[in-house]
Q: What sequence folds into this?
């Protein structure tokens, strides 16, 4: 992972949350001349994501710290897997410990959760994609973690594509526009390089959106049999994306309906952090 200026700013903000007035415990107990080594270790099975940004926290805390990643992002973790080594002033290692692990636990949790969905639909042609339901400031990192877990990214931001949602439709309905009118309006006012996706809730809307030229249909909260019907209508005309309340128990049925994409907000908004720790050696 390339650490961008935005990520560096996020690291600085995270460090300041913990270190704005110093580290009273470490400063009281650990002499500056104490040096040693620590290892980041996995305490459960999962998928690694975010090791570069975690190690950057240590280096940001002190240029005297040396870091050595032992495995790379996307690696499968087992309990007690050694992930990285950090050596140098022990006080700096202890001060940076929680901030670094916060990044690594969160991103590895996203990658691990994503991998569960990817495994659940193995053998189908569907792809698991994320949403914009991300932690503020963490979007690029969480979307990176989704890729490390075997998933794919939906829009990075609102400028990446046109996605006509139900509230867009309701707003314009008050001004006399039909779904077909809205899709045509989007094409008339958008750059030619941007695709138009529209959220639909029933087969009648599927047919109307297709006739209007929509390139991607988001099938919102449809039952699998309705999804399959929509997929048949869309073949050769538009891509299909299943969305809305999909979880690990329902994702396989959605994939078997034949949809191209399955968007899952839970990959980023509900993934539990992976249990990782730092051990002084």
A:
């Amino acid at each position: 992972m390339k650490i961008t200026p935005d990520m560096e700013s996020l690291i600085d903000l995270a460090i300041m949350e913990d270190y704005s007035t110093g580290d009273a415990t470490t400063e009281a107990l650990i002499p500056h001349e104490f040096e040693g080594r620590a290892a980041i270790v996995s305490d459960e099975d999962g998928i690694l994501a975010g090791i570069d940004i975690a190690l950057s926290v240590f280096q940001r805390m002190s240029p005297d710290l040396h870091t050595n990643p032992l495995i790379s992002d996307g690696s499968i973790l087992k309990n007690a897997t050694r992930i990285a080594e950090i050596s140098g002033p022990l006080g700096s290692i202890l001060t940076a410990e929680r901030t670094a692990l916060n990044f690594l636990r969160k991103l590895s949790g996203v990658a691990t959760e994503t991998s569960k969905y990817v495994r659940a639909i193995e053998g189908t042609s569907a792809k698991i994609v994320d949403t914009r339901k991300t932690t503020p400031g963490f979007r690029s990192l969480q979307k990176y973690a989704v890729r490390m877990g075997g998933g794919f990214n939906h829009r990075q931001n609102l400028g990446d594509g046109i996605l006509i949602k139900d509230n867009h439709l309701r707003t314009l309905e008050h001004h006399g526009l039909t779904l077909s009118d809205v899709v045509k309006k989007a094409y008339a006012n958008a750059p030619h390089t941007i695709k138009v996706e529209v959220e639909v809730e029933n087969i009648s809307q599927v047919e109307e959106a297709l006739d209007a030229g929509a390139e991607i249909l988001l099938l919102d909260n449809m039952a699998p049999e309705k999804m399959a019907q929509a997929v048949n209508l869309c073949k050769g005309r538009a891509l299909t994306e299943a969305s809305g309340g999909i979880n690990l128990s329902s994702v396989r049925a959605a994939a078997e309906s034949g949809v191209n994409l399955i968007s899952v907000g839970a990959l980023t908004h509900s993934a539990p952090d992976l249990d990782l720790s730092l051990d002084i050696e």
